Amino acid sequence: MNVEHVRTALGLRFRQYARDRLFLVLLVYLPVMYIGLISQLTPPVDLPVRVSVGTLTMELMRPMGQINGVVMTAAASVFVTGMVGLFTMYRSRGADRRLVRAGFGPTNLVVARLGLLVAVAAVATAFGTGVLLLSVWPNHLGQFVFGVVTLAVTYGLVGLAVGQTFDRLAGLYVMLFTPTLDIAVFQNPTFIRGDPPTWMTLLPSYHAMQVVLDAAFGDGARLLNAELALVVLGLAGLLAAAALHRAGVVES
User: Fold this and answer.
1) What letter would DSSP give residue 37?
2) According to a count of CB atoms within 10 Å of the terminal CB, is the N or C end of the chain lower?
3) What does pTM read for this prediction?
4) Per-residue model confidence (pLDDT) at position 248
5) Do the Cβ atoms of 52 and 94 come closer than 8 Å?
6) Which residues are registered as beta bridge partners of 50?
7) Residue 107, CB half-sphere, CA atoms under 13 Å: how many?
8) How many CA atoms lie within 13 A of 224 on its CB side?
9) What CA–CA distance (Å, rounded) separates 40 from 193?
């Protein structure tokens, strides 16, 4: 791996998105709409949230607006990062081939793409968390940020795979509806009460969202959930690697 090549490829990608007004609007608009406005418009009622308290899992009553704010922070970060992963596949195919012909190894291009996703996830999480902190302060802020970034990068990698598998319109629908249903509905305590059915625990966001909710409202994330969230991230990485191989970015 050539560090200078990685830096150059990553710089090209940063400049590409820095000039994209839609991306910049989403980066600012989504946190304000998803987190700020929705949490403010939520009825002032308390709802139960299942979180870790010591070695136990308990239901604590929290304002519905705070619950929605926490969930939508994750949803907004995932949406932005997932879209970047998706459109990176559509936008960069020709550029990647030209860079390979110019002597940039496939490994350098893959590392640059991963670096872009991590950077976007971090920036989107920072924006979203900043809006959230105006109304809710997570009990364990560092663990909360870890959970959101892990989930955002996971869906960014899924976006890479979707971009290789589907055309632009179909891929857009997949990345619009899949994370929304997974996070904003199936992992949202305002919709799902009590123990979730087994199939919900197999969704990509389950363990990362347990980290997020435990960090926000409980005594802190359980190590097992954090580890399993990283396992899911690794599986998403394998899925993305297979997609990049099919696209000719990764060589056998």
Assistant:
1) I
2) C
3) 0.89
4) 61
5) no
6) 59
7) 5
8) 2
9) 22
